[in-house]
UniProtKB/TrEMBL annotation:
Protein name from the UniProt record: Bacteriorhodopsin
InterPro entries: Arc/bac/fun_rhodopsins, Rhodopsin_retinal_BS
Domain of life of the native organism: Bacteria
Entry's family note: Belongs to the archaeal/bacterial/fungal opsin family.
Compartments it resides in: Membrane
Source lineage: Bacteria, Pseudomonadati, Bacteroidota, Cytophagia, Cytophagales
Transmembrane segments: 6-25, 37-56, 76-95, 102-122, 128-150
Record keywords, A-Z: Chromophore, Membrane, Photoreceptor protein, Receptor, Retinal protein, Sensory transduction, Transmembrane, Transmembrane helix
Membrane topology type: Multi-pass membrane protein
Broad class of where this protein is predominantly found: membrane
Organism: Hymenobacter profundi
SMART domains xrefs: Bac_rhodopsin
């Protein structure tokens, strides 16, 4: 078995272990809503499935002499929006569900998906100009994600509970 394949399978095992750990923690939630544990379990499960495909030699294609592992993009287009939702739900923990900022959640997820899809199109582009244009669009979407996290989402966290929005290094 080649090293890359072995690493894919080790990653799959790690993700399954992480999902099981979240499941165990969900049995004693300590005030954390069950939907947050469901999101936390879904992230490594989905990622494990994508990397299992790569471990089986699937989820890749060759374009212009370069291998594109599109299974990674399939992983990222689901797992990173879920990570952003988990982050947003943490920031909005003390806000009643009916008052949560759904437009902010949609904006975070939409910008993230645009960023990932632009990366995939850049990776699949044979033309360097097209690749650069897709890359620039993806960077623009990434800057939107950063802006929403570090301004809007952080302010919500600070306003609801100062400890949620402030990082204090040890």
């Amino acid at each position: 078995m080649e090293t890359q394949t072995l690493l894919h399978w080790l990653y799959v095992a790690s993700m399954v272990g992480g999902a099981l750990l979240f499941w165990v923690w969900s049995r004693n939630p300590k005030g954390v809503p069950q939907y947050e544990y469901s999101i936390a379990m879904m992230i490594p499960i989905w990622s494990a499935l994508a990397y299992m495909a790569m471990g089986l030699g699937q989820g890749k294609t060759e374009v212009a002499g370069q291998i594109t592992h599109y299974a990674r993009y399939i992983d990222w287009v689901v797992s990173t929006p879920l990570l952003l939702l988990a982050l947003a739900f943490t920031a909005m923990f003390y806000i009643p569900k009916q008052e949560r900022k759904l437009n902010l959640l949609f904006g975070l997820v939409a910008a993230d998906v645009v960023m990932i899809v632009c990366g995939l199109f850049a990776d699949l582009s044979e033309n360097s100009t097209a690749r650069l244009l897709w890359y620039i669009c993806g960077v623009g979407a990434f800057l939107c994600v950063l802006y929403l996290i570090w301004t809007k989402l952080r302010q919500i966290a600070i306003n609801s509970d100062a400890e949620l929005g402030v990082y204090i290094p040890n």
